[in-house]
Design a protein that fits this description.
The chain is mostly helical. It has two domains: 71 residues; 93 residues. The protein contains twelve helices and no strands. The longest helix has 34 residues. The chain starts with 11 loop residues before the first helix and ends with a helix.
Length: 225
Amino acid sequence: MNNANGSVPVANSLIKNPLLQDRLIRVTSRQDLWEQSVNIIKNTKYIVEHAKNVKMVLGTSKGRDKLCSIIQYVAKFVYTCNIHSNIKEYQETLKNFGESRDDRLLSARIYKSMSKNRKIFNLFKFIDEIYYIMNIAKSSTNSIEMKFFDIMSHFCAFLNFALDNLVWMINTRILSHEKLVQLRPELSYYRYTSALWRTLFNFVFSIMELRWCQKYFLPNTKENK
């Protein structure tokens, strides 16, 4: 029923509810409702535009690998925080889990799953490193020192990806030769060592590249003075 002034009565329960009351106060007129609708549409367009960029990144194997690596290492970080936590509740819970701790913790399951599934993105990725090394050797833009560290970085990446593929094939029993199975710990060791050297060579090359950019692109304040 309508009141004498023609307005529709609102139930007392709706007015007493602070959330619903807040909503009723926000939309006081048709103009206010129109402005809020326009803002929602603008925000939706903003989300759609950024979603397109995310789709473009995920459209490549490298983009999907990077996303999986973020999820993997975030889960690893959470798992490490849990097992080394000083909170008594977590310590008691982990003691109750016993040997099945990794199987019952969600962060551990996500980390292990991602670490296994990411292997497929690195399959035959060492071929790209050969292509990069050939292009660096042909280029004449960088100095000999920069070429050396850049080539060594990609060479270590080549070893890392090649050994990673080999260890994955041994673990999945694609290669089940006894000698290869026995050499699996050593292959894993050299894989991690090559990744470490790759990081070191990349670090030195990045410093040299920054100095080169500073020399040729940034103004020399001393000479200007």
